[in-house]
Amino acid sequence: MIFALQDGSDRNTRTLAKPGDIEPLHVLRSEFHAILMKAAYTHGIKTLAGKKFVSLQEKGPEVVINFADGSLVTADFVIGADGVHSAVRKCIFPDAPLPIVCGRGFVGEVELGQYANGITAQFDDPKALHMDPIGGNSFYHCTYAPNSVSFDIISFNHPDQQLPLDSNANTDWSPVKNLSEERGNLARDVESWGFKRNIVDNIRVAKQLTPLIVLDLPDLPQYYSSRVVLIGDAAHGILPTNGQGLNLALEDAGTLGDLFGHFKNAQDPVPRVFELYERFENRMYRA
């Protein structure tokens, strides 16, 4: 992967994978979601779509979950993986601090090639991060198909005055409504920050732009209650790009799975598993 300043200077190449590791794989969120759902179905894991969590009650060795449609589900334990605005977190830690806005930006997609307006969409490298350390701006892109590239632009400088969100947008990854106008405005902003010309041109022909907000999550008192545990960005503040929250949730889920495997013969492994998970997370994220 290439790291460089916004104008392309001071290039630095770094290998993200250690010897023997699998190289990072870039895949669209929608495609990865389809893969996960298919795997869940193949392994007989029941999934319920269209459900909205409302509240839960811990009752001894069980947890009762209430959904907006009035239905109830009783479980041995609950894993809250519902993102930085986690309703599960609010339920078990009602006094926990709220997420803090520390940046704004956009995530987008562009098809490489020649366009009718004379722009040739192209990048110098398959994957790169261009940074404006003084201005507090960054541009990251990655090729996920032969002629398809995803990118994200983030400004950390004065977040309350940064890139304005589309008036119809929300925090649920809704694409901008007026694509032509928004990409023109964004291209002018990025150009004023001193970014390379081909980066600016690629923004001008982006096929999709979605506003994003970068949120930091202050440390929680702990990551679990009696029989409810938090994973991913429901528990940790992290950049909302490149699926990092999802990847972190998968890593946390793997940790829980390994721990449950060590106590599979225990009558009630949940208290011990959650205690050890807390200790592991503290070493990882609070050291």
UniProtKB/TrEMBL annotation:
<dbReference type="GO" id="GO:0004497">
    <property type="term" value="F:monooxygenase activity"/>
</dbReference>
<dbReference type="Pfam" id="PF01494">
    <property type="entry name" value="FAD_binding_3"/>
</dbReference>
<comment type="similarity">
    <text>Belongs to the paxM FAD-dependent monooxygenase family.</text>
</comment>
<dbReference type="InterPro" id="IPR002938">
    <property type="entry name" value="FAD-bd"/>
</dbReference>
<feature type="domain" description="FAD-binding">
    <location>
        <begin position="29"/>
        <end position="92"/>
    </location>
</feature>
<keyword id="KW-0285">Flavoprotein</keyword>
<dbReference type="InterPro" id="IPR036188">
    <property type="entry name" value="FAD/NAD-bd_sf"/>
</dbReference>
<feature type="domain" description="FAD-binding">
    <location>
        <begin position="222"/>
        <end position="261"/>
    </location>
</feature>
<keyword id="KW-0560">Oxidoreductase</keyword>
<dbReference type="InterPro" id="IPR050493">
    <property type="entry name" value="FAD-dep_Monooxygenase_BioMet"/>
</dbReference>
<dbReference type="GO" id="GO:0071949">
    <property type="term" value="F:FAD binding"/>
</dbReference>
<keyword id="KW-0274">FAD</keyword>
<keyword id="KW-0503">Monooxygenase</keyword>
<protein>
    <submittedName>
        <fullName>FAD/NAD(P)-binding domain-containing protein</fullName>
    </submittedName>
</protein>
